[in-house]
Amino acid sequence: MSRSAFQNLVRAVVASTALTAVAACTLQQTPPTPAPPPAPEKPIPQLVIDTPKDSSAYLRNYYARIQATRLVHDQLRGDGGGPDTPFTEAMLARNFERIAFNSEYSKVEERRITKEHPVKLTRWSKPVRFALSFGDGVSEEQRGVDRQVFTPYIARLSRLTNHPISAVSETVPLGVNFTVFILTEDDRRAIAPALRRTMPDISDADLHDVINMRRDTQCAVFARDRGNDNRIDRAVAVIRAELPTLMRAACLHEELAQGLGLPNDSPSARPSIFNDSDEFGLLTNHDELLLQMLYDPRLQPGMGADEARPIFTKIAAELMSGSV
């Protein structure tokens, strides 16, 4: 998404106002003789509607409040970074090592938990063919908005990595190997059969985590190298449809980039979407360099950090000097 398009989305965030009605009454100076009081009536029961906290309506309001708070605190930036976020070639190399050679999740008894651990360089070797898949509960208007973010972003990823990356038709998703599901709460709870078809080897634990996604999880990505050779051959991303526009765009940017082989976050990476601070919502100029480094042919899937360090340090220096 371009900077101007992102700014237009920010301006579309609208504050709501509340109206208070005031009733008045008057008294007569000489009241007439009071009539006998009417027979008491049974109170009319009031209908109280309690929106369940796992309903789409509740979640839309919940995430809208989160987005509004982040915008007030200058988070979800879409400017890519600037004079206020300088970084050096040493910082770029250090951030690449932390993000590409570590994963923020570990497997414990087949469950995915948040625990960083070292990994070998992992990326796609075959062409990546993305497809959007919307749940039945997602409106046509929202689908159009998300396509406007998705389509140019796929072209950008292809250009940055110099790897064959393309978008496949939603109606005839032939050859798709990276599916991006955008689902409402009800859609997601019924997604098991589609997920099994899309990624047959998805674990029961991962499937459970998707269906019963925690409220503080806005999106997730799962990538597989079925040959255990650090070459990704299939991936799935799941994004909540209840997220406001900016947060959905942020999920698209981060999960798709992570699914290409950048599985970790770093608190020192700035400007970057690979940072849990949420300062930046869209891929930054720093992140573009990370993707270029990841798909540089001098690096190969299966390399460990120690083996690859002299190579990616040199690549970082070249990128920062403009010689690449």
Automatic annotation (TrEMBL):
Keyword list, A-Z: Signal
Domain of life (superkingdom): Bacteria
Pfam families linked: DUF2927
InterPro entries hit by this protein: DUF2927
PROSITE patterns assigned to the protein according to its UniProt record, in alphabetical order: PROKAR_LIPOPROTEIN (PS51257)
Signal peptide per UniProt: 1-23
Name listed for the protein in its UniProt record: DUF2927 domain-containing protein
